[in-house]
Amino acid sequence: MLNSYVMHRHTGPALGIMVWGGIGYHSRTPLDLIAAIFQQDNARPHVARIVQRIFVNHQIELLPWPARSPDLSPIETMWSMIAQRLTQNTPPATTPDQLWKRVEDA
Predict the structure, then answer these.
(1) Separation CA 29–CA 81 (nearest Å)
(2) Is residue 103 within 8 Å of residue 86, measured between CB atoms?
(3) Any idea where the Tc1-like transposase DDE domain is (predicted)?
(4) N or C: which terminus of the chain carries fewer CB neighbours within 10 A?
(5) CA distances from 38 to 31, 35, 45, 86, 106 (A)
(6) What angle do the packed helices 96-105 and 73-87 form, to 10 degrees?
């Protein structure tokens, strides 16, 4: 979370942090807080020239993703479960550090 690696953006009223995690049959990885490194699943909207130009122009690093690899959809269930647990907390987190602590505790 070095300031030189953080790109602040406003996408709505909710506080957010970017994390990476993996799931497997009867296992999961710990969640890791990440900076501006993106992963996408090579869907046509993601690999359009205009989108690729944005990544290059803004020097956004992409994690490699092999062609015809499985979709990311199984991870969406985990994100949904974490979001549910985080919304049960009151009062809501007001800083990224508070939010990260709650993600770790979930």
Answers:
(1) 15
(2) yes
(3) 40-90
(4) N
(5) 15, 9, 15, 23, 23
(6) 110
Q: Which helix (H) or strand (E) holds 76?
A: helix 73-87
Which residue in 42, 37, 44, 34 sits closest to 58, CA to CA? Answer: 37
Written as tens digits, the pLDDT of the chain (106 aa) is: 566 666 666 566 666 677 777 777 788 888 787 776 677 777 788 788 988 898 889 888 887 776 666 655 667 777 788 778 777 766 777 888 888 887 777 6
Name the token pair of 56: 């290059």
Threshold 0.85, pTM exceeds? no
Q: Which of 98, 84, 80, 82 is nearest to 31 (CA)?
A: 82
